[in-house]
Structure formats: structure tokens, C-alpha cells
Design goal:
By secondary structure, the chain is an alpha/beta fold. The protein has 13 helices and 22 strands. Helix 10 crosses helix 12 (424-435) and helix 11 (397-414) runs antiparallel to helix 12 (424-435). The chain starts with a strand and ends in a 5-residue tail after the last helix.
Length: 459
């Protein structure tokens, strides 16, 4: 089949080609499409039935001449050549070199769709990852092997936050750092330049593999890129025992490309026009994070998505939240106040937090301090809303303490500089400092022994 060309393209719809007379095309098989001018575009088989193969083109199909277009079925699925030489290099969404350097030569190839991890072989995430960011380390802890997405909105500083995490992430009490696999999906030139400058200027590129798909490039590459990135990550983690941090941004662009293909196939749309199988499709990406028993390496995943219209009920964040183990939510209100990284800790959640903190991991008082700050900040925000109605003069002394705590929490704990790499001890120390502005008798979520040992009340 490799040397057979088919000139039976009967229809072209947006990014799809319909080729007749095909009996043995395989699902996800890679094809080569030779256009009238001799240029070759790659594609992938999406569906085959009744002798018709539906092919998704990774290039432009505008002006394609049906009679003079040839399609060659390669008999191979999409594979990525993998090697440790990929570290420090930049690739496009199809896994081809885009930094002007030499091609990657390797005898090892890996199917980009990966293999499902046997749930029995999964090891439970339990090691604390210190990002140096108080709102994450202290309140919504990231654990090695976890998948923890960032829910953001247009114009919010999720790119800066991702770059800061990539630069600062480390295992506490260990000199083991992270190799970073970064996947930029449908980025504009400004975003791409920001990440490239950050990786180069901080030296992070020396330990990173970067895959970039720009907004001006074919949208179909966006469906391939996350799988390319995760294939490289799996190679480093499970073949070379490395700890890999995978950052994927922006998953909203990925889902838009998925919707585009679904519409071209004339499938029955689901919520907001997205395909009904989007949940399953996203799970094939997110579930590739984790730890495997008897394997030293690990994959920790931070997907980033911008919520359309800041709507957390949109299908993209909604389905992502079901699959992943929590979320870090950025707040436009905090951003307008000039607070970076603008993390709303009350909307954020790390379902694996308690598995990665405590005595021997972070500090014995960590869980109690975090719980107390959650409660105090929530109460303080309620008081702040009440104050807008009744005025501060109508508040009791206790209510004024909680109101003051909410202000301190945002200005001292949430707010930090872009290059401020806080240790977990510094983060918890700030927590004790601001809690000391509330009467000690209100500390109902902290053990007395911890109050005596770490408390900063003057009396």
C-alpha cells in the first residue's frame, strides 16, 4: 500500500478530504497528500467506512484540485522520534524542528497516542512540589504526578504564572529538579516570544523540550501537539527516570480545533457546539500524567485554559475539572487590584493536597494553617460584602479583625513578585503573621500545640 497513490478524492470540506475506493485504511493512519503543484501535505485518517476514507489534512486545502490531487497511505500511525537530544530544542506541532538546528536522529520512535496506564500499576502521588508560590504551595498544593490545571481568562497573567512555575518547581529536600516539556497551542506571536525569551534568559531551555504551534499555523496541528509533548515526556520519565513537568497552554485552542473538525465532519454537536466525545478526548491527554510503580520517573501536568467569557461552567473548564485533580483559578477582580499572581484560593482546589503535606513532607502545622486561612479569608470576604451595605462602623471588633485579615491575606500572602521564590517555611510564616491579627481564641482549626510552637501572638 505504501507505493499506491489514490486519485479518487471526491470532496474537500474545510480541512477534510473524502477519498473513495479505500478498503483497508487504518484509524489514525498517516497519509501524504500531493497537491497539483507538487507540494506534499500530511494528513491523518479520521474514519473509514463503505470504502470511503475521511482524512484530516494538516495543511491548507484551499484551491485543491480534486482531479490532480494524489493521496498515499503510509500504513503508519503518527510517531515521534525520541531522544535525549530533544532537550534544549524547539519543535512545531508535528514534531519537526523549528529552531533552525539539526534534525533529531534516533532509532527510537514512539506512537504519539501513547498507551493507557494500567490503574493497578499507578503509584499514588505523595511528594510535595515546591513552586515558590504561596497560594499554590500553602493552600492548593501541587503533588508530583498530579494533573492540576490553571483556569484563567483572556488578559490574565497565566503565562507569567506558568513560566514562574517552570522556573521554580522543585522537590522539597531533594536536589532533583524537573525537566520541562512545554506545549504552546495556538499561541499568538507575543505569547510565543514571551515564553521563548523566558526559557532562554533564565536558562530553563537547557532542561526543556518546547513544542510550539502559532495561531497563524494550521489548526489541525493543535490536535497533534499535546500528544507530541506527552510522548516526549513519557520517554524522559519512563525511559530515563526523569521527573517531567508538562505545561500545555492554551487547551481552549485545542478544544476549538476539536470543534472545527467535528463541524467539518457534520457530527451532531453537544454543549456549545463542542463534540459530545470531548470529555473522552481530553481524558486521553490529561490521564497521561502520573507515577508508575517501580519507575523512578514521573509526569506532572499543568494544563492552562482560558475560560470563554470568564465562565467556569463552560464545557472546557467544566469537563477538565471532572478529569483532573483540582484547579488553580485566576481572579479578574484580584488582577484589577494589581495583585499577582491573582489566584482566587476559595475557587481553587487541589484534591491531592493532604497527600503531599504534613510532617516529614512540608511541616506538621501546614494543614491546620491552610484550613484556618481558608476559613478566615472566606469569613473576611463575607464581612467585606456586608460592609458595603451597613458600613464599617456597624461591625463588631471581631468582624473588623476578619475584614483586616482579608486585606492582609491579599496584600501579603496572595501578592508576590514574579521572581519571588518563597520556601514553604516562608509561606507558612506569612500565614502565621497574618493570622496573629485575629484573636487567638478564634483559631479553632489549629491544634494548641502548634499555636504554642509557631504562633506569633504578642500575648
Amino acid at each position: 500500500m505504501e507505493n499506491v497513490y489514490y486519485k479518487t478524492v471526491k470532496q474537500v470540506t474545510n480541512v477534510l478530504l473524502f477519498v473513495e475506493g479505500i478498503k483497508d485504511a487504518a484509524y489514525n493512519e498517516i497519509v501524504e497528500i500531493t497537491l497539483e503543484n507538487g507540494s506534499v501535505v500530511r494528513g491523518q485518517v479520521l474514519d473509514t467506512k463503505d470504502g470511503i476514507a475521511v482524512i484530516q489534512s494538516f495543511g491548507d486545502t484551499t484551491g485543491m484540485n480534486l482531479g490532480n490531487t494524489k493521496v498515499k497511505f503510509t500504513g503508519r500511525t503518527a510517531k515521534l522520534k525520541v531522544s535525549t537530544d530533544m532537550i534544549g530544542r524547539i519543535f512545531n506541532g508535528m514534531g519537526r524542528v523549528r529552531d533552525g538546528g539539526p534534525e533529531i536522529y534516533s532509532d527510537e520512535e514512539a506512537d504519539i497516542n501513547g498507551s493507557a496506564i494500567n490503574p493497578y500499576a499507578r503509584d499514588e502521588p505523595s511528594e510535595f512540589i515546591q513552586t515558590g508560590i504561596s497560594t499554590i504551595d500553602g493552600m492548593n498544593t501541587l503533588v508530583r504526578g498530579q494533573k492540576l490545571p490553571i483556569f484563567s481568562g483572556s488578559g490574565l497573567p497565566h503565562n507569567r504564572l506558568a513560566a514562574q512555575i517552570a522556573r521554580q518547581a522543585k522537590l522539597l529536600g531533594s536536589d532533583e529538579g524537573f525537566s520541562v516539556v512545554f506545549g504552546g497551542i495556538g499561541l499568538n506571536s507575543e505569547e510565543a516570544n514571551f515564553f521563548m525569551n523566558e526559557f532562554r534568559n533564565t536558562g530553563a531551555l537547557d532542561k526543556s523540550i518546547v513544542f510550539l504551534n502559532l495561531a497563524s499555523e494550521p489548526s489541525m496541528e493543535r490536535l497533534m501537539l499535546p500528544r507530541m509533548a506527552l510522548t516526549a515526556a513519557e520517554y524522559l520519565a519512563y525511559k530515563h527516570d526523569m521527573h517531567v513537568l508538562v505545561i500545555l497552554t492554551d487547551m481552549t485552542n485545542y478544544c476549538e480545533a476539536l470543534r472545527e473538525v467535528s463541524a467539518a465532519r457534520e457530527e451532531v454537536p453537544g454543549r456549545r457546539g463542542y463534540p459530545g466525545y470531548m470529555y473522552t478526548d481530553l481524558s486521553t491527554i490529561y490521564e497521561r500524567a502520573g507515577k508508575i510503580r517501580d519507575k523512578k520517573g514521573s509526569i506532572t501536568q499543568i494544563p492552562i485554559l482560558t475560560m470563554p467569557g470568564d465562565d467556569i461552567t463552560n464545557p472546557i473548564p467544566d469537563l477538565t475539572g471532572y478529569i483532573t485533580e483540582g484547579q488553580i483559578v485566576l481572579s479578574r477582580d484580584l488582577y484589577r487590584k494589581g495583585l499577582y499572581p491573582a489566584v482566587d484560593v476559595l475557587l481553587s482546589l487541589s484534591r491531592l493536597r493532604n497527600q503531599g503535606i504534613g510532617k516529614g513532607k512540608t511541616r506538621e502545622d501546614h494543614s491546620n494553617v491552610a484550613d484556618q486561612m481558608f476559613a478566615a479569608y472566606a469569613h473576611g470576604k463575607d464581612i467585606r460584602n456586608l460592609t458595603e451595605i451597613v458600613g464599617e462602623e456597624a461591625l463588631s471588633d471581631a468582624d473588623k479583625e476578619y475584614l483586616h485579615f482579608a486585606d492582609l491575606f491579599e496584600s501579603k500572602f496572595v501578592k508576590q513578585e514574579y521572581y519571588d521564590d518563597r520556601s514553604i517555611d516562608q509561606t507558612l510564616g506569612i500565614g502565621w503573621d497574618i493570622l496573629s491579627n485575629i484573636d487567638k481564641s478564634e483559631m479553632k482549626r489549629i491544634k494548641d500545640a502548634y499555636i504554642e510552637k509557631y504562633g506569633k501572638w504578642k500575648k
